[in-house]
Amino acid sequence: MGFFQKKRERKDRVMPRHIAIIMDGNGRWAKKRSLPRSAGHSAGARNFKDIARYCNKIGLEYLTVYAFSTENWKRPKAEVDHILNLLRDYLKDAKNFKDENIAVKFIGNISVLPQDIIDLIKDAEINSQNATGLKLNIALNYGGRDEIINAVKKTVEDVQSGKIAYSDINEEYFASNLYTLGIPDPDIIIRPSGEYRLSNFLIWQSAYSEFWFSNVLWPDFKPKHLEMAIDEYNKRERRFGGI
Q1: Which of 24, 146, 158, 187 is catalytic?
Q2: Do the Cβ atoms of 98 and 133 come closer than 8 Å?
Q3: pLDDT for position 76
Q4: Is 12 a catalytic residue?
Q5: Which of 189, 182, 154, 158 is CA-nearest to residue 18?
Q6: Which of 35, 96, 124, 213 could form a disulfide with 30 if both were Cys (CB 3.0 to 4.6 A apart)?
Q7: Mean pLDDT, rounded, for 119-139
Q8: Is 72 noted as a catalytic residue in this protein?
Q9: pLDDT over threshold 80, residue 2
Q10: CB 120 within 8 A of CB 93
Q11: Which fold has domain 15-143+184-231?
């Protein structure tokens, strides 16, 4: 009886439309194993692919992952170079995601990246744009404050050019100038690694997001942990300021 009750409850479970993940803890994962930080980033990159594929398998509509922040440039050059090389490897392998019906989109200030990476990003987005499965958004050289400032500048330019009247500016119009144009706000933001902060991630978009934190370091974050977060999401009551 208990088995069938549990099975029925799982069938009735509501799937979030959009899950965002702060992929944190790669360096600490490596340190615990007396490995260089680069090994942690490599393990985290492999896990990212596994989790993205699992999200596609269970029918999630949107997944946004925090891959590289505007602040991450402050890290040692060797570490940054390794992360960029991991990105190159992923992008060169992006055809595998196309075969899996996953649409890839990058959000953030891509213009400052090396030109070969920019070209690979464009190819990945174009080649996967007709995919009907998971919409995978990778936040790269992304910062929430930078995004908002960029949107303010675009909005001011639109007013000055006469595209829109000052009095017509509202939340919807402002959001159309964000990197996440066309992407719904995240229903739940997941952060492994034991940290309890957004770290400049989706500041505007997270106004009514649920949060789920875990002490598990990102390379050890498995589908079972994702399922735990979704189950917890189903226990939350989302009122969006109402009663």
Answers
A1: 24
A2: no
A3: 93
A4: no
A5: 189
A6: 35
A7: 94
A8: yes
A9: no
A10: no
A11: Undecaprenyl pyrophosphate synthetase (3.40.1180)
